[in-house]
Amino acid sequence: MKEEEIKGIWELLATPKKIAIIPHRSPDGDAMGSTLGLYHFLKKLNHEAIVIAPNEFPEFLAWLPGSEKVLIFEKDKENVAKVLQGAEVIFTLDFNALHRTGEMENVLNKLTAPFIMIDHHQKPDDYAAFTYSNTKFGSTCEMVYNFITYLEKKELLDETIASCLYTGIVTDSGSFRFPTTTSETHRVAAALLDLGARNGDIHNSLFDNNSYHRLQLLGRALQNMKVFPEFKTSYIRLTQQELDEFKYVKGDTEGIVNYGLTIKGIIFAAIFIENKEEGIVKISFRSQGNFDVNQFARQYFNGGGHINAAGGKSNKSLDETIKDFESILSQQNFNV
Ligand code: 5GP
Ligand code: MN
Question: Where in the numbering of this chain does the DHHA1 domain appear (predicted)?
Fold first, then answer.
C-alpha cells in the first residue's frame, strides 16, 4: 500500500466509527477468517464494527470467534440494509466486484460511505476509496495481517485475531500446498502461531468435522466423476436430488472439486452442482500449472477467481451446462 493511502485510511479510522465488514456471498474460510480477524482488530481500536455476510456461512466455520455476531443479509434484508445505511466506513474483503455479494449489491451501490477493499482476486472493480488488491497473495487473511502491519498496529494482534487469520491462510492455501504459498506466508503463519493460534485445533475444526452424510455424498460425487484423459480433464456432477438424498447442508460440497486434480495426468477439474432453489448450476474449477481457470470461468460461465481456482454459474439445466462444458473442452489448449 502507498503511504498516502495508509494516511487516508488512518484519517478514516482516527475516531470511533460505525464500520461494516463484508465478505463475498457463500463465504469460505478466507472470507470469514479475514472479516472476523479485521472485526476483532477494529473493535480493539474502539470502533463499532460488525460483519455482514450476504448469506449464511457454512457450519464448519461456526467455531470462529465472533461468528455468532455476524449478521446475515438474506435472512433479514430490511433490517440489515438499515445497518448498512448507518455505516460510516465499509470494508469489503475477499472479493473484487460488488455483484459477488448477490442481492446485497443493490443496497451497497446506493451507499455513500467510503469503501475499503482488501482482496486478492484478479481485475478489481473501481468502487473503493482505498483498494488494497494484489493477486500475488494466497489469501485475504495474509493481506489483513499486512494491513495491520502497515497501520503499525501489530501490538493489537492477539490469539483471537490470529486464529481467524490463520484459518483463511490454511483454507485458501490448501493447507500450505498451493503455489501462492510463499516463504512470507509461512512467516505470517509462524507469527500467528506465536500469537497463540492453535494449528492442530484449527485443522481439526476445519477438516475433521464431517458428518456421515457428507462422506456418503463425497462417495457419490467420486462415483459420478468423468475423466477425459485426452483433455487432461475430469469433472463431477451432483444433482439436487442427490444433495437431498444425503441431507446436504451448506459446506458439504466444499473441496470435493479438488479430488479431480489428484488423478495422475489431470490438470483441469470441475464440479457442477445443481441448485434448484436458486435455479442455477454452481460450478467450481481447479487447475494445476498454467491452465487459467479464471479466464475460462469468465469466458464461458459468468464467473472468475484465480488462475488455479475459480467459480461460475449457469442458468441452463445441469445436463445442458455439462454438454456445453464438454463441447468447450475440445477448443482448449491443455499443453500450457
Ligand atoms: P470456489 O470454487 O471455492 O467457490 O471458488 C474458487 C475461487 O473462485 C474463489 O476465489 C471464489 O471467490 C471465486 N469464485 C467462485 N465463484 C465465483 C463466481 O461466480 N464469480 C466470480 N467472479 N468468482 C467466483
Ligand atoms: Mn480468498
Answer: 248-330
Q: What is the pLDDT of residues 222-269, one digit of tens each?
A: 999 999 999 999 999 999 999 999 999 988 999 999 999 999 999 999
User: How far is 336 from 333, CA to CA, in rounded Å?
Assistant: 7
Give 39's Cβ-side CA count (13 Å radius).
Answer: 28
- CATH value at residue 271: 3.10.310.30
CATH code, 103: 3.90.1640.10
Tell me if 305 CB under 6 Å of ligand 1.
Answer: yes
Determine if ligand 1 sits within 6 Å of the CB of residue 92.
no
Full residue range of the structural domain in which residue 64 is found:
3-207
Ligand 1 within 6 A of 138 CB?
no
Q: What is the pTM of this model?
A: 0.92
Ligand 1, atom 24: nearest CA belongs to which residue? 311
Contact 27, 53 (CB under 8 A): yes
List the shell of residues around ion ligand 2, using CB closer than 5 Å: 30, 94, 140, 172
Which residues of the chain register pLDDT less than 50?
Answer: none
Query: Cα–Cα distance between 27 and 33 in angstroms, integer?
Result: 10
